[in-house]
What we know:
Number of strands: 11
Largest sheet: 9 strands, mixed
Helix content: 25-40%
Number of domains: 1
CATH architecture: 3-Layer(aba) Sandwich
Amino acid sequence: MTTERETRALLTELLRVFYAKGWVSGTGGGICGPADGGGLLLAPTGVHKERVGVDDFFVVDPADGHVVRTPGDATLRPSECNTIFCLAARTRAARSVVHSHALSAVLAGDLAGDADHVAIRDLEMLKGIRGVANRDVHLLPVIRNAPRESELVEQIGAVFADPRFQNAFAIVVADHGAYIWGDDVMEAKRHAEVYHFLFEATVARHDRQKEGRR
């Protein structure tokens, strides 16, 4: 069984990996994972994510998001992703969530236009999403952006309640990025990698098809 200390180390390692990929640059993005006692480890806000240390995480109660343990550094503040991470934990049993600011997520969201989703199909990588086959048409929900992340909760709650999106483990926020989750840290990692591939492939296909029509 993984200890909380090991989970903290894994989360900091993943933040460095995601930074290298351009998913959490400029202090943006976030991550959470399971803490002892049923809480969630929450990365701080407003800091360079590749520099987050194992002792810099807050522990929050997913039932309401209140902080139950603080890091030793009193200047740190809990991520604004807190309310969304906790909502995913309560409604989708997510024990780990990645918040990405990747360009590919933003461009994939652009493809929705006025719709509330992007349909992804005919890609082998779809099998990397739990419960999805490579011949499925996977509906990726897309919601509108807001000035503060806490203001996205109502839209995200509506996505979680929509049966069309029951097999989705990601939500794209237009002009912003994506939230991607899993049952544990490693599943959230896998889903994050798979969805970013799907974002890039879907955008590239759209661009190629658009070029072919000229």
